[in-house]
Amino acid sequence: MSDCIFCKIFAGEIPAKEVARTDDVLVFRDLNPQAPHHLLVIPKRHATDLGDFVAAARAEEVGDLFAAASRAGRAASPSGYRIVVNEGVDAGQTVFHLHLHVLAGRNLDWPPG
Ligand code: AMP
Predict the structure, then answer these.
(1) Residue 32 Cα, ligand 1 centroid: separation in angstroms?
(2) 30 C-beta closer than 6 A to ligand 1
């Protein structure tokens, strides 16, 4: 999508601190980290949120996204990490291209705020 910031990051049109990349998934560092390790995992295919993504995705596509997040989390911290997906205004979603947050490197409170 032409005016989507994460589509532009995937395409390399906006700089980002990339951690891992495949043809379909990109892992990069969050600009405003909420933990010592705060990564974002995005699919190449634009979808506004998780609901829209899974409505059109093959199971393999969903699996690849979570596999990338899991690998990134374990690499960041073998002692634990958290995957967060915000969908919609109530959850605080601010960028409307599906992204998985991977947070690690500190004790993560539960329940989250
Ligand atoms: P959410 O509130 O779940 O939509 O999360 C959006 C996340 O994207 C926030 O944690 C932002 O800090 C992050 N973010 C926004 N723009 C950029 C960017 N250009 N590079 C890296 N992270 C970004």
Answers:
(1) 7
(2) yes
Averaged over 34-63, what is the pLDDT?
97
Which domains are assigned to the chain?
A: 5-104 (3.30.428.10)
> Residue 46 class from Cβ within 10 Å (0-12 exposed, 13-18 middle, 19+ buried)?
middle
For residue 64, what are the CA distances in angstroms to 59, 87, 88, 107, 110? 9, 19, 23, 27, 27
* Residues tagged active-site: 99
Q: How far apart are alpha carbons 43 and 57 in whole angstroms?
A: 11
Please tell me the predicted confidence (pLDDT) of residue 2: 83
Q: 101 Cβ partners below 8 Å, 6+ apart?
A: 30, 34, 38, 39, 40, 82, 83, 84, 85, 86
pLDDT of residue 17: 98
Average pLDDT over residues 19-35: 98
